[in-house]
Design a protein that fits this description.
With about 350 residues, the chain is mainly beta. The protein contains three helices and 27 strands. A hairpin with a 6-residue loop joins strand 26 (about 335-345) and strand 27.
Length: about 350
Amino acid sequence: MTRLRHICLMALVCATLLAHADGIVRWLEMRHDFGTIHEEDGKVSCTMRLVNDGDSELIITQVRTSCGCTAAGYDKAPIAPGDTARITVTYDPVARPGEFNKDVFVYTNGSPRRSGVSIHGTVIARPETLSEFYPVAAGAMRMTGASVPLGELTKGRKRSSYLTTVNTSTSDTLLVSVKGSQPHLKAAAAPDTLPPGKVGAVTVFFDTRLAPQWGLNIDTVTVITEPLHPSATAVAGTANVYVMAQVLDDFTQLTDKQRAEAPIIEVSTDKLTFARDALTATLTVTNAGQKLLELRRVWTAEPGITICCDKTRVKRGKSATVTVTVDPSQLSQHLLNGRMTIVSNDPSRQSLTVRLVGEL
């Protein structure tokens, strides 16, 4: 029994000695604030120091950064107990306006095996970068675009998206608001108070259950910016943002029998031609399927064009007539090259396009 206790005691002593034999990492700096920097001034660097508080040599085995815009250099020589090593962290602000927060992870053979430091700051972009990456201005704030395309959405789905914003002012905090929300579309700025040089977003949320139209829905919201503290140099402004979503029915759950019995849309032509002495043209829409064909929407975005449909519900084997009339005075040019869209409940062809052409 005494022998067993002796062995256990020796093992405990050895484990303790081994534990204290490791190098121990202690950082003198763990976070560096670059403050406000200018993109045109190029890369910036800082130094982070660590001390080996252990009883054995400490070796930095690897350094990783959280982003390709950040690089780190270090001394690969062993760090003796009590000595100090330095990590040089470099950030590249080119084409990266706004606030940044980056992490650097340091791996060693000591304790802890992995530790981290971080850098942060705000980049003031040069005018060329702002024009390229943030082409739309709303006063002193700029945005990555003036449209939010949401793509095709089946009825019942929801989708959100956003535009990135940046306050280009070096001194003025901006109040940002968005007007134009509707039952199917909500839009907001986050944050709604944007400090100088900071990055934010204009977010939109689209609910197809409340969408007013089948097919393409185009909505407009207005982004408004005004300085928190008005002054002679503060710049306010507005910008329109267009939100686009193609709303279609969800026919994925139809059985083979239901598809076989579904309505089938057929049109008499895929192109209507107009002339100065022929400003009206017609086409026929026929239901070649079994179930009732619903013409959910017949429309065009072209100015100066009027569309009239004599019926929107077409029985099996029956037809509807679509009449299209052009007003040349409303056209921006004499050459017409547009299109008309027909949205129906044909599961195989929900949306079809008819070209509208002519020299007027």
